[in-house]
Amino acid sequence: GAILVSFGVGDGPTSDKNFIRMLSVLDKHHIIVLNITQCVSGHIDSNDYETGIMLQKYNVISGNDMTLECGYAKLLYLLSKYRLNNIGPLLETSIRGELSPTPTSFEI
Fold first, then answer.
1. Distance between CA 49 and CA 61 in Å, rounded?
2. How confident is the model at residue 108 (pLDDT cuts 50, 70, 90)?
């Protein structure tokens, strides 16, 4: 598995051909990619911008509002316990309260 630490609501440098090639190789080899935001608060919203939609094409999984540390621990746990094709949905499901019931948002 791999963790992508992305910008804002989950955007990556999708205009970078090497970045897209990397995502393609990871997807081709069925390597799980979990997208975590580098922002202190907020969440991944893969449907918000074109770049997020591009990440979905390569089966990048939304980490919603998990921290990097939480995403790392959860990915390791799931890889040790479950078959690869079952991990994606489990990453997007709260197991022990690590995900907010509804996506977090910025308050002004």
1. 15
2. very low
Q: Which of 79, 78, 72, 83 is nearest to 93 (CA)?
A: 78
CA-angle at 67, arms to 62 and 69, nearest 5°? 115
Q: CA of 11: how far to CAs of 38, 51, 82, 101, in Å?
A: 10, 5, 28, 22
pLDDT value for 55: 85
In 3D, which of 95, 93, 100, 91 has the Cα closest to residue 41? Answer: 100
Give the integer Cα–Cα distance in Å for 36 and 81.
21
Q: How many CA atoms within 13 Å lie on the side-chain side of 20? A: 10
pLDDT in tens, 76-99: 999 999 988 889 899 988 998 888
